[in-house]
Design brief:
The chain is an all-beta fold. It is built from no helices and 21 strands.
Length: 188
């Protein structure tokens, strides 16, 4: 088991026989060109190199194949979908989500303006009853055995409060034709 682009993988075989032995390494049953030593090294392993390896050992009298050795390559999380920016009304709700590929298991940590949100540790983050203080840049950091990656930020904007009346118009009693009537309202 190797981490992608972080490790070299080496396969080796020990064999006996006379006269001199020759070696031919195979990947998923296909000959690997130039791999003709008792050791086969892969530099900076990639996912394309994950699979089955074996070696065919020969001399003029005959040949034999080794058991299959499997190379597993672990990868960092890679985002298939990123959280999406959105606007929501005061008191409304919003949901941010992500999906990733790579070597499982994954753990998640949602952040608001770069600060971890306590308890927000799933691939989905939902908030109900949003207010203006919930506006900000939200991102998620995904961790696995290989390390971590952080999503692009999603800008969430929560609209201000709807207007409310704090001073209602007052009823008035005036004589016909004698005055101008004014009604006032105070809103915030």
């Amino acid at each position: 088991v190797f981490k992608e682009n972080a490790n070299n993988a080496a396969f080796s075989v020990t064999a006996t026989g006379t006269p001199q032995l020759t070696y031919q390494w195979l990947f998923n049953g296909v000959v690997i060109s130039g791999a003709t030593n008792s050791v086969y090294v892969i530099s900076l392993v990639t996912t394309n190199q994950a699979g089955s390896y074996s070696v065919l050992i020969s001399n003029p009298i005959g040949s034999t194949s080794s058991a299959i050795a499997t190379l597993t390559v672990q990868t960092l999380p890679k985002f298939l979908s990123q959280p999406i920016s959105q606007s929501v009304n005061h008191g409304g709700s919003f949901t941010l989500s992500t999906s990733v590929t790579g070597t499982a298991p994954f753990t998640y940590q949602w952040n608001k303006n770069g600060v971890p949100i306590s308890g927000a540790t799933n691939n989905v983050f939902a908030l109900t009853g949003a207010n203006e203080s919930d506006s900000g840049l939200y991102s998620v950091t995904v961790f696995n055995i290989c390390g971590s990656v952080t999503s692009n930020p999603a800008n969430v904007t929560v609209a201000g409060l709807p207007p409310s009346i704090v001073g209602h118009p007052q009823s008035q009693d005036v004589k016909k034709g004698s005055a101008i009537v004014t009604f006032n309202v105070v809103a915030q």
